[in-house]
Design a protein that fits this description.
This protein is of the alpha/beta class. It contains 18 helices and 13 strands. An eight-stranded parallel beta barrel has the order 1-2-3-4-5-7-10-11, surrounded by six helices.
Length: 482
């Protein structure tokens, strides 16, 4: 084989697999000593989920975990991204609260079985399921003095229990969502907002920025702990994963070009700039003024450089115009409709998602140039319109999702091979249809169809496409655990 042929493939140690999160799949919420998370009761409140369903069963993966791993092995994935349930490991959550041995044993067995199947565990410590006890005790993420210490202790327990086998850690999943959706819009647990029809308490003008700040600090101090006490012996890497979609100017007018950058600053830069560059974006300082908390010099020394890589969750692209009224989007108006009236791409089930693969490539290039660290794509996917109302046989022919992944994988390959962007991993969302937070079960992102009546799993065409594509587009070499 010539070197030219080799160069047409992704490097042999490129990691690919699928992603999930604990509350979205596990179920068994009151089994084996697990404490409640903030999503347990929130998802049972009328009107909080679109279909009125909760996470008590989900895809029943706490019971069916061996079946899940067998399917992952059948797919031939190199890695699996999943999250740990804080309240399964420390039911009351706090630094002086007891650890639940059954929670540790469950994840330990799960990790061992992944490894026995040649699958690299890629572990998220926090994917939105704060222990309810910490929210009740001191308002959770709003209380810097308490939450940073409690989160670091939780991370310590996990590094100690699993770090001999887990070499890839994510501290937090999507801090923008934690902050804005949980404490600004109030659509995610704990559901705080200034909108008194939605929430009896909360302040959307201040709380999201406080929460974001405290999430950054919790992340950074957990990373410091890992680097100082575990990394030398365990040899792993640790980082954070941020959501953020590509922002394109609606047209070339200077104000719309500026608006697109503002959109990136508020969704991505809010977290990425402090963590990778050591400061909040200037635009956010101007926008929020005294509402944006500051870092002490000591804190900033811990925050800056506190991620070994860039964890990237991305789904779509927005056209941006100046002059929106939504502070959470940087006062930018976003649309999928081009000036000529055409749509950017195929519409998904979710109003916020259209298929535009060029935007994926553009975002990879932007992040690589701005932050200069290897990129791990930890979520990316598509929900087919009305898939939940289709018969199983029809749902398995998920052509819009296949087309989405065809475009994305081509863009991924071009970014790596033509643009020289250092992308190390790609995890489509999601391995299974699952509990899609405020959407309940009506929105399906899985490459595997779940029949919730029977909990049977059926591979969709998109799963077959991705398995084949990665089989053909990664250089040959042994699966090596890293």
């Amino acid at each position: 084989m010539t070197s030219g042929e080799v160069a047409k493939k992704l490097p042999k140690d490129f990691m690919w697999g699928f992603a999930t999160a604990s509350f979205q799949i596990e179920g068994s919420t009151n089994v084996d000593g697990r404490g409640k998370s903030i999503w347990d009761d929130f998802s049972k409140q009328p009107g909080k989920t679109r279909d009125g369903r909760d996470g008590d069963v989900a895809t029943d993966s706490y019971r069916l975990w061996k079946e899940d791993i067998a399917l992952l092995a059948q797919y031939g994935v190199k890695s699996y991204r999943f999250s740990l349930s804080w309240s399964r490991i420390i039911p009351l959550g706090g630094r002086n609260d007891p650890v639940n041995p059954k929670g540790i044993a469950f994840y330990s067995n799960f990790i061992d079985t992944l490894l026995e199947n040649g699958i690299i565990p890629f572990v998220t410590l926090y994917h939105w399921d704060l222990p309810q006890a910490l929210h009740d005790r001191y308002d959770g993420w709003l209380n810097k003095d308490e939450i940073v210490q409690d989160y670091v202790r939780y991370a310590d327990v996990c590094f100690e229990a699993f770090g001999d086998r887990v070499k890839n850690w994510l501290t937090m999943n999507e801090p923008w969502c934690i902050s804005i959706l949980g404490y600004g819009r109030g659509v995610f647990a704990p559901g705080r907002s200034s909108d008194r029809e939605r929430s009896p308490e909360g302040n959307s003008s201040t709380e999201p920025w406080v929460v974001g700040h405290n999430v950054i600090l919790s992340h950074a101090y957990a990373v410091r702990l890992y680097r100082e006490e575990f990394k030398a012996a365990q040899g792993g890497q640790i980082g954070i994963t941020l959501n953020g979609d590509w922002a394109m100017p609606y047209d070339e007018s200077p104000q719309n070009v500026e608006a697109a950058q503002h959109a990136l600053d508020v969704v991505i830069g809010w977290f990425a700039d402090p963590i990778y560059l050591g400061h909040y974006p200037d635009y956010m300082k101007q926008m929020l003024r005294e509402r944006l908390p500051g870092f002490t010099p000591e804190e900033l020394a811990v925050v800056k450089g506190s991620s070994d890589f860039y964890g990237m969750n991305t789904y779509t692209t927005n056209l941006c115009k100046a002059g929106g009224d939504d502070e959470f989007q940087g006062f930018v108006e976003r649309t999928f409709t081009r000036p000529d009236g055409t749509q950017l791409g195929t519409q998904a089930h979710c109003a916020w998602l259209q298929d535009y693969p060029q935007g994926f490539r553009d975002l990879l290039n932007y992040l690589w140039k701005r932050y200069k660290l290897p990129i791990y794509v930890t979520e990316n996917g598509f929900a087919v319109k009305d898939e939940d109302s289709k018969a199983i046989g029809e749902a398995l022919q998920d052509n819009d999702r296949v087309n989405y992944f065809k475009g994305i994988t081509a863009a991924l390959k071009a970014a790596v091979l033509e643009d020289s962007v250092d992308v190390r991993a790609y995890f489509p969302w999601s391995f299974l249809d699952n509990f899609e937070w405020a959407d309940g079960y009506s929105t399906r992102f899985g490459v595997t169809y779940v029949d919730y009546e029977t909990q049977r799993r059926y591979p969709k065409e998109s799963a077959k496409f991705l398995v084949k594509w990665f089989g053909e587009n990664i250089e040959a070499g042994d699966k090596k655990l890293q």
